[in-house]
Design goal:
The complex is a heterodimer of chains A (223) and B (301). Chain A is 31% helix and 26% strand. In chain A, the strands form two sheets. Chain A has a six-stranded mixed beta sheet, sandwiched between helices. Chain A is α/β, with parallel strands linked by helices and 223 residues long. Chain A has a domain at 90-154. In chain A, strand 7, helix 6 (170-185) and strand 8 form a beta-alpha-beta unit. Chain B folds into two domains: 9-58 and 166-298, no CATH class; 64-162, Alpha-Beta Plaits. Chain B has helices at residues 2-23, 25-61, 75-86, 99-110, 115-118, 139-151, 164-205, 207-215, 220-260, 263-268, 275-298, and strands spanning 64-69, 91-97, 128-133, 156-160. In chain B, helix 2 packs antiparallel against helix 7 (164-205) and helix 2 runs antiparallel to helix 11. The relative contact order of chain B is 0.17. The chains are: A alpha/beta (223), B alpha+beta (301). At the A-B interface, helix 2 of A face helix 1 and helix 8 of B.
Chain lengths: 223, 301
């Protein structure tokens, strides 16, 4: 599903974010990307989303070579990917239901179909009782669950999460990881960037360790 | 299916545009006010220029020679002279205006200012003949011949056939139109800049939403859609308000002129803004508003 070969990213000014990174992720896998701040985790996720172009090397997602992907094809590429952020990025003036439903405008669904699917997505993350709540009225864990529902509502093949538990306490972090595991169990490939070693240990999934832009280690899932 | 998706997309643009308006009413009202003010001013100038132009056209079509007679010329002599002129080639009609009629016309034209003549012991206005010539390319030649023939007659005190003022006023009008057009271009360029700067605040307030939409696969055109629909709606509202304001101003001035009997102002505010000028104001308003919305959102998307 994802093939990364000798990928490098050098920002203007000479800062190297990734250097000679090679890795593969198979369809349906659950992978942690870990490493200290500045290791290149977020840069790799941004390249996977085609928010940035690599400076060198190849990256192929769903059979698409992202270096050669024309700008006009980027939206189509992104429609197959769900994304979750550390800071949730919810719209404060929209209810939980609307925060999930509005992204379905992109695929041209009717309002009723949007609400139906958003309802199902929120139900799958255990928030069917908070549909009408606005983000400021939700706890951090609930906000992140809304963000996860938004990421999966379009049934993506790939889910990317950048430090999704960074703003949550350990119990909520475990709860969020349980949701990712359920999503993965339904067939979605999940890549989670985190520097939370306890969480990685607890989840027992394949882990790729980055440091200073290079892959310095990898561990296979033991469970 | 494709049509249905397009309809849903349009419905989303409209709903989201309204949402955007509700979300940043202050910013949007500021942008709207800027556009309405500029359109109103341009519409007002257009109203004055159009009416002056219309008046000049009427004057040009109405080719007249005014023959002022000495006070000693009696009614019989005046009538004889009138008939003589009427038989001249190129003359359509000759109207005899006695001093009382001249005074009545002056009072109607001057309004309150006519009170000045009441302070005089006698009517200062002379009797005259108003000679209407056939409009056309020969009018100038016929008028000049008539003036030359009448100027030496003993009954005639003065003959007026001044067409030069029309040329001068038309030249001034052309300069005003050209200068006004150039100024309007500069004003609207500034309005686009101001509106785009103000609307950028509204776009900035929705940057998270825009980022999410782009990350879930929205095309830049899809993200810009609601902002452009809001721009279009804002342009239409601004055009409506500005043209309504110009018409209200015209009616107000006309009513005031009627009450005050100020003839000169009345000439310039007699008729509403012509359809072509209204259309131009509408087109400019919509284009300016759309351009401002596009510039505002292009930096973020």
């Amino acid at each position: 599903m994802i093939r990364v070969h000798r990928l490098s990213k050098v920002y203007p000014g000479g800062v190297t974010a990734l250097q000679d990174v090679s890795l593969d992720v198979e369809r349906g896998e659950f992978v942690f990307l870990t490493g200290p701040s500045g290791a290149g985790k977020t840069t790799l996720l941004r390249i996977l989303l085609r928010q940035e172009l690599p400076s060198d090397g190849q990256i192929v997602v769903h059979g698409r070579n992202l270096r050669a992907l024309p700008a006009s094809k980027v939206p189509e590429h992104r429609r197959g990917i769900g994304v979750v952020f550390q800071d949730f990025k919810l719209i404060p003036r929209k209810t939980a239901l609307d925060n999930v439903a509005y992204v379905l405008n992109v695929v041209g669904l009717s309002g009723s179909e949007q609400r139906r699917r958003a309802h199902l997505a929120l139900k799958s993350v255990g928030l069917s009782h908070r549909l009408a709540a606005y983000p400021p009225a939700l706890s951090g864990g609930e906000q992140q669950r809304v963000a996860i529902a938004r990421a999966v509502v379009n049934e993506p093949d790939l889910l990317l999460a950048d430090e999704p538990t960074g703003n949550l306490d350990p119990d909520l972090a475990v709860e969020i990881m349980r949701l990712f595991r359920e999503i993965n169990a339904r067939g979605t490939t999940v890549i989670v960037a985190t520097h939370d070693r306890d969480l990685i240990q607890r989840m027992q999934r394949r882990t790729i360790v980055l440091d200073h832009g290079t892959v310095v280690g990898a561990a296979r899932a033991t469970a | 299916m494709r049509r249905s998706a397009a309809l849903h997309r349009l419905a989303y643009f409209v709903t989201d545009a309204w949402d955007e308006w509700r979300h940043s009413p202050g910013v949007n009202l500021l942008a709207l006010g800027t556009l309405v003010s500029a359109l109103f001013l341009v519409g007002l100038v257009g109203l004055v220029l159009a009416n002056v132009g219309r008046h000049l056209d009427a004057e040009r079509a109405n080719v007249q020679v005014h023959v002022y007679l000495h006070d000693s010329v009696g009614a019989e002599e005046r009538e004889r002279l009138r008939r003589g002129i009427e038989e001249s080639a190129g003359v359509v009609a000759v109207e005899s205006v006695d001093p009382a009629e001249a005074l009545r016309r002056y009072r109607a034209w001057a309004g309150r200012s006519a009170a000045l003549v009441d302070e005089l012991a006698t009517n200062p206005l002379p009797a005259s003949l108003e000679v209407t010539l056939a409009a056309g390319p020969d009018a100038e030649r016929v008028g000049a011949t008539l003036v030359a023939g009448l100027a030496g007659r003993t009954e005639v005190e003065d003959v007026r056939f001044d067409r030069d003022w029309l040329e001068r006023v038309e030249a001034l009008l052309a300069v005003a139109r050209l200068g006004g057009g150039a100024l309007a271009v500069l004003v609207f360029a500034a309005v686009v800049f101001v509106m785009a700067s103000v609307l950028r605040l509204a776009v900035h307030a929705r940057r998270d939403e825009i980022e999410i939409m782009l990350l879930v696969g929205a095309t830049p055109g899809f993200v810009r859609g609601p902002f452009l629909v809001a721009g279009l709606a804002q342009g239409l509202v601004a055009v409506g308000l500005a043209l309504g304001g110009v018409e209200a101003a015209r009616r107000g001035i006309t009513a005031w002129v009627g009450a005050e009997s100020i003839a000169l102002v009345g000439l310039a505010t007699l008729r509403p803004l012509p359809a072509d000028a209204s259309g131009a104001v509408s087109a400019v308003g919509i284009v300016v508003s759309l351009a401002a919305a596009l510039f505002a959102v292009r930096r973020s998307v």
